[in-house]
Amino acid sequence: MHKQFICYxxxxxxxxxxxxxxxxxxxxxxxxxxxxxxxxxxxxxxxESHYRRxxxxxxxxxxxxxxxxxxxxxxxGLERLLNKNHxxxxxxxRLSVFRNSGGLYKPSDNSVSYIAETVPLxxxxxxxxxxxxxxxxxxxxxxxxDKLAKLKTANSLLYISAAIYARSEGLDDCFIQNTADxxxxxxxxxxxxxKGDTFFTPSLEEGCVAGIMRxxxxxxxxxxxxxxxxxxIDENDLLSADECFLTNAVSGIRWVxxxxxxxxxxxxARTLTRLLNQEQFGR
Length: 283
Hints:
By secondary structure, this protein is of the alpha+beta class. It contains seven helices and 15 strands. Helix content is 28%, strand content 32%.
């Protein structure tokens, strides 16, 4: 195994070397955003969409996107990191951006630093799960559908709590409700259901993260002439659906086989995974 590196503000550092102080605002206040990016070889999937979401989120919370090196330089830096780590197949990249240290709740300034790290994946393409997921609903904490809900922030306590609940119930994943008791998303994914010839997914107004793979699946579906409705989804919709699947940028699509007494098919998830792989990898 080759020695592994991280990228800290453009500098390649050994992954075991500490780089953050106790005053780091991501640690102290959760004052950070992050992106998880799929790479194949040294090609980053949907990087333009990731960078757009990141910078839009930064502006929303008052960070300065201008303190980043820019989209082309950032992409080139991440490609250098993949080469430095000798990772030429499937890779998960986590790109974290945090406001620089200083101040308490009121920052000293709004400039940022960033860290990128890599984890190898078992497959170089999007691989659909053979065994469907068993899912439930986590109702212990409800998600507030406000402007911050669509961001991927360093505060993941809701998702951690939901994942712990899923494990305690013997489930593979669980759905998170918003304050109106509608389904917003899963612990690390957006959710889609299929009824007949129509896709349904929670709208951004329902409080889900503005997922990159969510965006791509909506685009792919509509490109195939399939109606995709961004709307409110509740538990009754889950129980009346023909199919249910989850999406995120690293895993692609994962199909759900069971929710309570309901059983789902996987035909649509398989078709979309095939289309996604053909588009991105030519196979």
